[in-house]
Amino acid sequence: MQNSFTEENYLKIIHALSGREGVEVSTNALAESTSTRAASVTDMLRKLADKGLIHYKKYQGVTLTESGEKVAIKVIRKHRLWEVFLVEKLGFGWDEVHDIAEELEHIPSEVLVEKLDTYLGHPKFDPHGDPIPDAKGNLTEPDYLILTDVHVGEKVLMMGVLDHAPSFLQHLDRSGITLGAVIEVKEINEYDKSASVQINGGPTLFISLEVSKNLLVQRR
Amino acid sequence: MQNSFTEENYLKIIHALSGREGVEVSTNALAESTSTRAASVTDMLRKLADKGLIHYKKYQGVTLTESGEKVAIKVIRKHRLWEVFLVEKLGFGWDEVHDIAEELEHIPSEVLVEKLDTYLGHPKFDPHGDPIPDAKGNLTEPDYLILTDVHVGEKVLMMGVLDHAPSFLQHLDRSGITLGAVIEVKEINEYDKSASVQINGGPTLFISLEVSKNLLVQRR
DNA sequence: ATATATTTTTAGGTTAGTCTAAATTTTTTA
DNA sequence: TAAAAAATTTAGACTAACCTAAAAATATAT
Ligand SMILES: [Mn+2]
Ligand SMILES: [Mn+2]
Ligand SMILES: [Mn+2]
Ligand SMILES: [Mn+2]
């Protein structure tokens, strides 16, 4: 039996909220993320449990089964590959592709995904720095730092974002903070944790804690 | 209000069955094409009529309104552009792309379609020789001949197919009959209208009336 | 011009996914 | 540890898109 568009979205969201440790996800958290009501979530959870895609005990929250995890990762693979296509081939900005990929990720053909992957040169990361699962379903989250964990004087590489909102990505564009940029932390203000950073050895700019909290970086 | 996946399919099918002259399409014909029952079609027709997308008088068949026509042509544009993408960029065969395009044609973003079109170099025809509507919604069906209308001794260019079934397209592949091939009619058998044709000045082969009826060609 | 056959519509129901309101369970607080 | 608050589930209902069976309209044949 094929999974519906809606079921795939639930699985993907459970995967995201469950995190690497596979913690239980609450009904309310799912209602929030799916923009539905808790009662609707409960209905869907019963269905996903019946299909063997989630572990569900009433009032106890849910986690993905192995089979649910597999489906979720396939959807994530498609989402991220399509985002690469949209940016690399069609020339979209990284702030424009999420909603379109949200639709494309549900196109069912396996062979399509594999041909797309080949066409794109088997990319390992999407335009936001998120890792792309391989064809076998292996997804390894690199362990990046958040910029707030970086000390004054350190130079790090910009590797990804936590917030994917267009407004945030556009803000980064205007600041010249792109994937791969070298960020040197020049100063951190004790008062509000805002920071002064130098980008690619060029201009120095101030960024708020809000921005720092959403930047994934790596020591070199 | 956005049109649903299902509504778009109805409009596209009404467009196809209605033809260039815009003849009325019957409930049964739509039931056949949509693989649903006549009663379901009636339900949908009432809905499409309420939305102003079709002209509908009970028992009298339907035609598209201008606004319905516009929607149908947009869907056709997307379908055919995606087919070009799948064949030209991803390396699918022309016999493999229809079902995938059937899904991709419902992805909503306007800007996506236009960027895709640009990326593909504004193609005028899809892999089956069908014309691609332009961004303004102009769709001009070239008036090709059917191979059955070609006389012995004439040389014509293969321009398209009427049957889009994978089995038919694969049969053409095996026969070396591709878009743009030169077909010279060497002989027509009176008994069953099967024909002997020469492809690109090379091999001569026999084709049945069934095949001839589905080949669109052009005099040079 | 009837009678018969065909087509189409209506009537009444189903399923997926959603909702609000009420009941129940779990968690937190006093 | 009992009361209050919060989270979750249940009950009952809605819409979109489908279905079968029956009724009504149109087309065809005698
Ligand atoms: Mn995304
Ligand atoms: Mn992404
Ligand atoms: Mn097609
Ligand atoms: Mn085509």
Helical content class of chain A: 40-55%
As for the CATH topology of the domain at 145-219 in chain A, it is SH3 type barrels
Mind telling me which CATH architecture of the domain at 145-219 in chain A this is?
A: Roll
Number of H/I helices of chain A: 8
- Alpha-carbon distance between the termini of chain A? 47 Å
Rg of chain A = 19 Å
Unreliably modeled segments of chain A: none
Describe this protein's structure.
2 copies of one chain form a homodimer. By secondary structure, chain A is of the alpha+beta class. Among the domains of chain A are: 60 residues, Arc Repressor Mutant, subunit A, CATH 1.10.10; 75 residues, SH3 type barrels, CATH 2.30.30. In chain A, 41% of the residues lie in helices and 16% in strands. Chain A is built from 8 helices and 8 strands; from the N terminus they run αααββαααββαβββαβ. The first copy, chain A, has a 6-stranded antiparallel β-sheet. In chain A, helix 1 packs across helix 2 and helix 2 packs across helix 3. The radius of gyration of chain A is 19 Å and the shape is globular. The model of chain A has no long low-confidence stretch (mean pLDDT 96). The interface between A and B is medium-sized, with 18 and 18 residues. Bound molecules: manganese (II) ion (4 copies). The site of one manganese (II) ion has 5 residues of chain B, from helix 4 and helix 5.
